[in-house]
Amino acid sequence: MTTQRGSGVSRRSALRTVGVAALGGVAGCVGDGAAPVSLLSAGSLARTFEDHIGPAFEDATGHRLDGEYYGSNAVMRRVEDDLAVPDVITSADATLLRDRLYGTVTDWDVAFASNSLGVAYNPETAVGQRLADGTPWYTVAAESEPGVIAISDPDLDPLGYRAVMAFELAAAEHDLSNFRERLLQRVYREPAEPQLLAGVESGGRAAAIAYKNMAIEHGLPFVAFPPAYNFGRLALADHYATVEYTTDDGYTATGRPVIYNATVHQDASNPAAGRQLVQFLIDNPTLLTDTGLTVGPQLPRPHGTPPEAITV
User: Fold this and answer.
1) Coil, helix or strand for 298?
2) Of the listed ranges 1-10, 41-50, 101-110, 136-145, the one predicted with least confidence
3) Residue 289 · residue 217 · CB < 8 Å
4) 3-class DSSP state for residue 9?
5) Do 160 and 198 meet the contact criterion of CB atoms below 8 Å apart?
6) How large is the average pLDDT for residues 35-61?
């Protein structure tokens, strides 16, 4: 029932020591007075950045990480509406960032990790006990009481609209009648993605559709969805693309693998340090895989034309 952590890519794992050492040299120059790097990020990476990437990056460079975390669609809205001008922006849906921000805020990004969906649950709840006993998640979900299973708000966050898409693909995979509609009548929609698993931890909710890394970071048991609808297999991109979701602001997201990407805002107040943070993500895959993310042979990879300071 629990997830297994991915292993780092050997070539890039070797680069980790080199990358940290090189950035450490920079840290010796910038010292304690280094300006912080502002980050506006997908909420599913909150603990990854706050507990792992941020401290390691500060140790290596002297730059403190100041992060804000929302659902990725909410991140894009904040940038588009000039409510935030961060140094670095990350998204849990690489295409979403490119569709919304290219041409106005950036013209490049680097895809640096992937993820997959499943059910994180509290084993002390009735729903959790059934999942732990091996009852198929879709049976448990369809028979659950309203509000005990949560999804992230699909109008604010790719995790939310991927959950809705997963319901649709699961219906086809398991021959379930009206499954998507039945679940959407039962699930609670959490508007703040970083808080999605807080209720599960406390027992206020029994389970949530979550990314693997979130379950690992929160220490919760996790039922992984099969590849047919976990959005974790790049090779199944065409299959995932058979479903879609249109958000309340009119953006239509097609089903696609979970790919995290990062870019630097063209009006960043600290662009050099922002580029250092992106490079740090590229050079340190083990920090990502240790938190449950996946860095496979096709990652990291650039899109557009990154600045010369970014080496992939």
Assistant:
1) coil
2) 1-10
3) no
4) coil
5) no
6) 97
CB atoms within 10 A of CB 18: 10
Rounded Cα distance, 197 and 209, in Å: 9
Quick one: 300 exposed, middle or buried, by C-beta within 10 A (0-12, 13-18, 19+)? buried
Neighbours of 235 (CB within 10 A): 9
Q: 29: helix, coil or strand?
A: helix
Residue type present at position 82 = D
DSSP string over 87-132: SEEEESBHHHHHHHHBTTTBSEEEEEEE--EEEEE-TTSHHHHHHH
For residue 52, what are its two tokens? Answer: 């792992």
Average pLDDT, the chain: 90
> Which amino acid does the sequence have at 221?
P
Please state the length of the chain. 312
- pTM score, two decimals? 0.87
Angstrom distance (rounded) from CA 115 to CA 210: 10
List pLDDT tens digits, range 184-216. Answer: 999 999 998 889 999 999 999 999 999 999 999
DSSP 137-182: HHHHHHTSPTTSEEEE-TTT-HHHHHHHHHHHHHHHHHT-TTHHHH
Give the integer Cα–Cα distance in Å for 288 and 222.
Answer: 19
Distance CA 268, CA 105 (A): 10
Torsions phi, psi for 279 (to 5 deg): -65, -35
Q: Which pair of structure tokens corresponds to residue 119?
A: 């059910």
Task: Tell me the domains of the chain and their CATH numbers.
Answer: 10-114+258-304 (3.40.190.10), 117-253 (3.40.190.10)
pLDDT (0 to 100) of residue 29: 39
Map residue 11 onto helix, strand or coil.
helix
Helices 54-61 and 10-30, packing angle to 10 deg: 50
Residue 231 in contact with residue 258, Cβ under 8 Å? yes
